[in-house]
Specification:
The protein has helices at 4-10, 12-24, 41-53, 67-74, 92-102, 124-135, 155-158, 171-180, 185-194, 198-205, 208-226, 231-242, 246-267, 282-290, 293-311, 316-328; strands at residues 30-34, 80-83, 112-116, 141-147, 162-165. The chain is an alpha/beta fold. It has 2 domains: 4-165, P-loop containing nucleotide triphosphate hydrolases (Rossmann fold), CATH 3.40.50; 207-328, Zinc Finger, Delta Prime, domain 3. Strand 3 (112-116), helix 6 (124-135) and strand 4 (141-147) form a beta-alpha-beta unit. Helix 12 packs antiparallel against helix 16. The termini are far apart. One of its GO terms (molecular function) is DNA-directed DNA polymerase activity.
Length: 329
């Protein structure tokens, strides 16, 4: 999204709050943008930064063409800093380095902006350090914190930010966007259940790795039903070699979650809500016979717990082995 006008189409209330502040010259010293992955948090942060620094903006809209806008887009503007988790968390040392950078005079303007992605991953020490920075900025500074889970952020930090809520995207509208890009209806339904980011969804739809990931997920679910004695062999020989990176492992669990939800929906007579399986698919009947509603509810919680363990940096092999044992149990 290149403009506030475009962003308003998917986040009308959040965009209006922000643009009203810009028009009135009442930019907050700190914002907390909270919303699900893909709801436009990064795009809003980028637009705000360009709006603050662009010399050729029209109303609230940055020109997008000037030297400043292009440098901010490329991440090479010295007065805009982006901070991301180092591994699984944002550490105290990263906040200290940010403070050090901001102790210097702004190089090309009278102010500075910093954006913290995944703000909920800050360690306790990093959070306390940021709190002091929010309270005592060295110069005119705008902080933009991005999070999917604001409850994990210190209340004292939240209280010093203006919170902007970004609403979940309309899945039907997103599916139509994907189909307009040439994605099949069935794939669009599945992809819209996994991500709200158009570029990511299109990339997955064209990626053989993702197609193989979906295939392995279906094989794993069926192995639980048809050959449970081979499940550990499948995990080590087929599943783990394919899902190597942390993001891939989380995506694999997301796919599993959707598959078991589909089986539960079939139990409940909600076949129209399924995203992985096709209604009246033969193998779906066998899976419904294998897993009771009570068992499926337990499995869904187990998969969610496994995702949480991955985010806590638990060994992924151990996570999958434990999940397998728990599902079989």
């Amino acid at each position: 999204m290149k403009s506030w006008e475009e962003l308003t189409k998917i986040q009308p209330l959040a965009s209006q709050l922000m643009t009203n502040s810009i028009k009135k010259g009442r930019i907050s010293h700190a914002y907390l943008l909270q919303g699900e992955r893909g709801t436009g948090k990064e795009e809003m942060a980028l637009l705000l930064a360009k709006t603050l620094f662009c010399d050729d903006r029209s109303g609230v809209e940055p020109c997008q063409e000037c030297y400043v806008c292009k440098r901010i887009d490329s991440g090479n503007y010295p007065d805009v800093h982006w901070l991301e988790p180092d591994g699984q968390s944002i550490r105290k040392e990263q906040i200290e380095e940010l403070q050090k950078e901001f102790s210097y005079t702004a190089l090309e303007s009278s102010e500075k902006v910093y954006v913290i992605k995944g703000a909920e991953t800050m360690t306790v020490n990093a959070s306390n350090r940021l709190l002091k920075f929010l309270e005592e900025p060295s110069q005119r500074t705008t902080a933009i914190l991005l999070t999917e889970n604001s409850s994990s952020i210190l209340p004292t930090i939240r209280s010093r930010c203006q919170t902007i809520d970004l609403k979940p995207l309309n899945p039907e509208a997103f599916q139509q966007q994907l189909m307009d890009e040439g994605v099949s209806y069935k794939s669009a339904v599945l992809l819209s259940a996994l991500t709200n980011r158009l570029d990511e969804a299109i990339s997955w739809s064209q990626d053989d790795w993702f197609a193989q990931a979906r295939k392995r997920m279906l094989q794993l679910v069926e192995t639980y039903s048809t050959n449970p004695e081979d499940i550990f062999l499948f995990i080590h020989q087929t599943w783990l070699p394919h899902f190597k990176e942390r993001s891939q492992q989380e995506l694999g669990l997301d796919l599993l979650l959707l598959a078991f939800k589909d089986i539960l929906f079939c139990h409940l007579g909600k076949e129209d809500d399924m995203v992985v399986f096709v209604k009246d698919e033969a193998r779906l009947e066998n899976l419904v016979m294998t897993f009771s509603q009570e068992k499926l509810l337990d499995i869904l919680q187990l998969v969610l717990d496994a995702k949480h363990k991955l985010r806590q940096n638990v060994n992924p092999t151990l996570v999958m082995e434990q999940l397998t044992i728990q599902i079989q149990g």
